[in-house]
Fold this sequence. Notes:
Radius of gyration: 23 Å
Bound molecules: phosphoenolpyruvate, manganese (II) ion
Strand content: 15-25%
Structural class: alpha/beta
Order of helices and strands: EHEEHEEEEHEHEEHEHEHEHHEHE
Shape: elongated
Largest sheet: 9 strands, parallel
Helix content: 25-40%
Distance between the termini: 46 Å
Amino acid sequence: MIVVLKQNPEKERVDRLMRHFTDMGLKINYSEGENTVILGLMGDTTRIDERDVLAYDVVERVQRVTEPFKAVNRKFHPEDTVIEVAGRRIGAGYFNVMAGPCSVESEAQIVEVAESVKKAGASFLRGGAFKPRTSPYSFQGLEDEGLKLLLEAKRQTGLPIVTEIMSEKHLDLFADVDIIQLGARNMQNFMLLKELGRSNKPILLKRGLSATMEEFLMAAEYIFAGGNHNVILCERGIRTFETMIRNNLDVSAIPLVKMFSHLPIIIDPSHAAGRRDMVQPLSRAAIAAGADGLIIEAHNNPRCALCDGAQSLDLPQFDAVMDDIKRRAAFEGREMMP
Ligand code: PEP
Ligand code: MN
């Protein structure tokens, strides 16, 4: 971190600032120009907030030179992380498709979808039991009952399950869930991030609707800081000025994550576009850009879905998209997990 001081600073104030940094265990490279003093801070600067440094009157500007995230930073962990869950590997070329309805609606629905997506080649069943809806009057999910039905579908098909948590109070209910999803709306729910950090469950962390990449990686850093290193990132579209699609898939998140982090990243083309006719082209883009997997909404009867029907593929459409995904993943050298 570089700290530029105001012109002709009072020595006493500079000493106070430097003491502040040395007390934090940092080394300082002091360099004095004709009328500017620059302090180069060396050591672990992740604990410093640039804005706190600006609270010292003597400081003109602060510039970070290393990222504020450390545990998820590729600089300190050059190899790709591979998450192992329920006999599947995620990351480093191992490719997974998670599929299922937006929300669990009934046993017949979730079991039919599970059997069908499994046959098509999905390696996980997705389905929401606790749903974060914009309107309090919309279907809120079957909650505990929905979790039971997901577990029943898992028992009948052998597909591991991924489902969203909305409160740390529910963690016990998620004991048999294979991957806990932390939804876009909760990406910066710091209490929840800390609790998930203390658990040993793999976490599917979705990017917030308008979160920067740095904020996204800092959310993953929270989970790591608590001791849980099983984090899978998920880009699911961000808000832009565009109105013809629900969100805008940020394809550049994939190479950016690969450059700056060792964590796997999967893509959610369903929530990104909000329309089923874009799921296939966005899946292709994700594979070509280096994604480690996809999470796709599929429903046995999308027209009657209680949530996100417009973006859900019906089961034959999912079969066709899966055929395309398998071909393209193989072409790009990914290994599909069964
Ligand atoms: C979902 O996966 O159904 C969901 C609500 O996703 P997001 O948090 O990305 O909106
Ligand atoms: Mn949904």
